[in-house]
Amino acid sequence: MKLAYPVTSPEGRGKVKAFTKDYERVFPLLQEWGYQGVELLVRDPDQVDRQYLGRCLRQWNLKLAAVGTSPMQIMDKLFLVHPEESVRREARRRCSGLLRLCRDFGAPALMGKYRGQISGEPGCGREDLAECMEGICREAKDLGVQVLLEPQNASNINNLNTIDETLSWIEERERAGCGNLGILADIYHMGITEKSIPESIRRAGGRIGFIHMADSDRKIPGEGRLPVGEVMKTLQREQYEGYVSLEIDQTPSSEAAAERSARALLAYVVGGENVDGNGL
């Protein structure tokens, strides 16, 4: 396992659970605290300065772990499935830019709430979501990019809420030729939707390509009620080799949240036992 932390690109600085400062201020801190990757949250992928980003990643020996869509939906209310055709069209355009950005850095594309809400309105049916995602997967396959779907609890979105539902949906898409879909497993959401987080991780197996880590109420790992230590040990036993990124409230500051999270998780990431005595 490897640790990553979310950082917004300059055009995407909104109210998100991430660092919203310049790369030069954030990346050296992440390197110092033991992070190996950056989860980049973008608003418009075509506006991301790839040379600047690549230079900063190399300077502080970090990798682009994944690219997410939070600023698109939070700041611009864009969703792939939406009653308004103009919204769907712009969301799909930016998704293509997202896939190209992922190709350029060898990172997966993350799809959570950006997929949109299912309803009986035109363009919002389950078949519309399936058709849209199959098109995205074909485009991503041509670019050599993996697409990771995030199950979220029903208060956030009304589709693909559980690990099992998402696994079944992915298997249906595979029969349609989409072999590059995987799962972004969010531990906070799993604490709501799953009977057992470790058991659901075991069922998902090699489908999991990225982890969002948080404790209950989006707290720093070890400061809430979720079995974070057991989750990390399960990932070790399942030989998960991807990134664990933090999706937590940035309190009291992003700096404090990132540093405390690294202290809580780093021992598991390097294969040892947590020795901080913080209840993990």
Structure write-up:
Strand 5 (147-149), helix 6 and strand 6 form a beta-alpha-beta unit. The protein has helices at residues 23-33, 50-59, 70-76, 85-105, 126-143, 163-175, 187-193, 197-204, 228-237, 254-269, and strands spanning 2-8, 37-41, 63-68, 109-111, 147-149, 181-186, 208-213, 243-246. The protein is α/β, with parallel strands linked by helices. 43% of the residues lie in helices and 14% in strands. It is globular, with a radius of gyration of 18 Å. The longest helix has 21 residues, at 85-105. It has 10 helices and 8 strands.
Notable characteristics:
10 helices; eight-stranded parallel beta sheet; alpha/beta; globular
Shape: globular
> Cα-atom Rg, whole angstroms?
18 Å
The separation of the N and C termini measures 17 Å
The total of helices stands at 10
Q: Provide the succession of SSEs.
A: EHEHEHHEHEHEHHEHEH
Instruction: Indicate the percent of residues in helices.
Output: 40-55%
Largest sheet: 8 strands, parallel
Strand order of the largest sheet: 3-2-1-8-7-6-5-4
* SS class: alpha/beta
Give the strand tally.
Answer: 8
Compute the average pLDDT.
94
Strand content: 5-15%
Q: What is the quaternary state of this protein?
A: single chain
Contiguous low-pLDDT stretches (5 residues minimum) are 271-279
